[in-house]
Design brief:
Strand content: 15-25%
CATH class: Alpha Beta
Radius of gyration: 13 Å
Number of helices: 6
Order of helices and strands: EHEHEHEHEHH
Strand order of the largest sheet: 2-1-3-4-5
Structural class: alpha/beta
Number of strands: 5
Largest sheet: 5 strands, parallel
CATH architecture: 3-Layer(aba) Sandwich
Length: 124
């Protein structure tokens, strides 16, 4: 059986690389997207089961990309988990308003990743 695919974007090395390792530990295939602007296109092409996005980006508004994916019928169903430091409350709020399914603090992401994924993937 094929492992589920998680699409991951990060620019900050420490939380990003740890996230990828943790997803591998949880038995996910991981595809890392290095150019945030390509997220909607790659999400459409790859059809991941979940996306985990660092909300901190130097060049692109991740919240705008989340909104773009959530209004597109081809990608709206993909659960999106955003993460950023506690001090980035504005980014957290923007991600929620844009349609992120869950938003977590950096320090809670790894220890609670299994539960976050379970919650994000829960189907009513």
């Amino acid at each position: 059986m094929t492992k589920p695919l998680a699409l991951v974007f990060y620019e900050r090395l420490l939380p990003g690389s740890q996230l990828v390792n943790r997803l591998h530990d949880l038995d996910y295939r991981v595809e890392t997207v290095m150019d945030a602007a390509l997220l909607p296109k790659i999400a459409f092409e790859k059809r991941p089961i979940v996306m985990v996005l660092d909300l901190v980006s130097k060049g692109v508004s991740i919240s705008e990309l989340i909104h773009e994916m959530k209004v597109n019928p081809a990608t709206t169903h993909i659960p999106i988990i955003g993460f950023a430091d506690k001090n980035q409350k504005k980014l957290h709020d923007q991600a929620v308003k844009s349609g992120a399914d869950l938003v977590a603090y950096d320090d809670a992401l790894l220890p609670q990743l299994g539960q976050l994924l379970e919650h994000a993937l829960h189907v009513e």
